[in-house]
Amino acid sequence: xxxxxxxxxxxxxxxxxxxxxxxxxxxxxxxxxxxxxxxxxxxxxxxxxxxxxxxxxxxxxxxxxxxxxxxxxxxxxxxxxxxxxxxxxxxxxxxxxxxxxxxxxxxxxxxxxxxxxxxxxxxxxxxxxxxxxxxxxxxxxxxxxxxxxxxxxxxxxxxxxxxxxxxxxxxxxxxxxxxxxxxxxxxxxxxxxxxxxxxxxxxxxxxxxxxxxxxxxxxxxxxxxxxxxxxxxxxxxxxxxxxxxxxxxxxxxxxxxxxxxxxxxxxxxxxxxxxxxxxxxxxxxxxxxxxxxxxxxxxxxxxxxxxxxxxxxxxxxxxxxxxxxxxxxxxxxxxxxxxxxxxxxxxxxxxxxxxxxxxxxxxxxxxxxxxxxxxxxxxxxxxxxxxxxxxxxxxxxxxxxxxxxxxxxxxxxxxxxxxxxxxxxxxxxxxxxxxxxxxxxxxxxxxxxxxxxxxxxxxxxxxxxxx
Amino acid sequence: xxxxxxxxxxxxxxxxxxxxxxxxxxxxxxxxxxxxxxxxxxxxxxxxxxxxxxxxxxxxxxxxxxxxxxxxxxxxxxxxxxxxxxxxxxxxxxxxxxxxxxxxxxxxxxxxxxxxxxxxxxxxxxxxxxxxxxxxxxxxxxxxxxxxxxxxxxxxxxxxxxxxxxxxxxxxxxxxxxxxxxxxxxxxxxxxxxxxxxxxxxxxxxxxxxxxxxxxxxxxxxxxxxxxxxxxxxxxxxxxxxxxxxxxxxx
Lengths: 467, 251
Fold this sequence. Notes:
By secondary structure, chain A is an alpha+beta fold. Helices cover 30% and strands 26% of the residues of chain A. In chain A, strands 10-11-12-13-14-15 form a 6-stranded antiparallel β-barrel. In chain B, a hairpin with a 4-residue loop joins β11 and β12 (230-233). In chain B, α6 packs parallel to α7 (149-162). β8 (333-338) of chain A pairs antiparallel with β6 (109-114) of chain B.
């Protein structure tokens, strides 16, 4: 067993990652050790990244233990870069983590400065030149080769022509150098794409009551509505993130079927959402930042006024379904949408009502025919025992749910072939469907799964019930 | 002396409280069978709560079919909300092409699936209160505890206020006191065979178990004509002559 990571105090004792645990114990007998848990580390890092969303939406993970923030255009909110660093230092202390932070013109330079430079950095260019080669994050062989050549700092490399370096140490080294020095384009990939619209409210003193938080969400929704109204747009999804002062975050989201910007509606949906939560929101020591984001905006014309004054009340039912769906779960209200297939159990797709926007046309049934498709469909079909003529006679009677049904009327077969073109082996059994009626007048939809030439002993199934 | 006066005042007050918009006669939707129209006083009342019982658990499709047929008959474009429970939807899906075959455009339908009877009734109360809904079908299996007289009265009042026709579909349940306007029992009936002994149009045995302010106990056999969105009287097969009519007030 070896040391994987150690804190500053242990570093000061002269121990470093990579040292066998036994050696470390010999040197420091009362060393406190814990098993490495990379998954938990990743979770912690993700949680910290969520908490860092307060500074900028452009937060990128730099595993195993780094975060890179693009603070272009957001530092002034905190009173400048240095003030932002101070705030970050205060926050990380509150979150219970130790960290080093540095900023620079390129992500790579910032990462290298935070890891290897003496903080705080006053002269950025000089500090970068003084960085050790390890700051380039190259593979160990290249680092060793560079060291052997007497190149120990970034400054040693920076002033040399690129071509001979690339020839000797590989293009990976020169590319890394170019990115670090800002000679080549270097981009961050944020964890989530920035929303189309975002409004924040930060508090000097954390607020500790969920009701107050809901009130703030209402204010934010009104603020967002003004912006969206000016742009002639609305949102179908609204996401709220509550930043707790101890670094924990809580996400809430609501959806609507139609684009909206009505603050009252959004607030009511969030109210429903909070009421319907299985685990209530725990404000802890209070929230110090609340953010409302609208990930995607859609065109929404200005609201029409009704003739007798006030906005026209339309889509009341849709709003109700949205509201109930927000409380009970979005999949609880469904719209049935047709799919282009003949296989009965795959014919219908049940979409959450908030997702299905435009109604899809269903074919008209054939006039003059009795219903050819059942009202209730069993999925999967239920196996039944059937007496029928071999090979392809109609069923005479069948046994289902502990009852024997004698068939007096039947129609069929309606032959539905398997979708062989969708399958790699071009196989699949043909189904012969019969509409049957028993002595008591109940109507069923049964089928034989496979023809006798396809299968030795095809089974029969109950697939649906007619009215 | 003053006692009787205050009592009178109190009675007037109570009478004023009890006077509900129920006094307004409901709009009636004719079902297409003159005998049923006569028994119902013009047709099925819109904006009321009606109960539909499956005669036996095996008649579930017939009862659900009757609810779907009524929904198709009552509204032409208004949305239909069909509420079920997880359990029922797991057993058998409500099949959209089958609804289309009965005359309902599935695009009009919103299917709500509740986790338990309590959620079902809560959602139903909200849906029935929304006047944009045309017909609400509330499908409930067995005898859930929350579905009592109070719950059904709440639905009935909401339906009267909003004008939504609420159809309470009950499977595997025995009729219990409720605030419903009418109560039907539905069983599958042998259809009139088509060519080559093919099963014909959906045939149902309907029994009007109860009617608020009207006679009940009549029995009809009807056939559903999807193209006309209407019922037609089907001849009772065998020797069955409509016996119930002898006992009805029409005699």
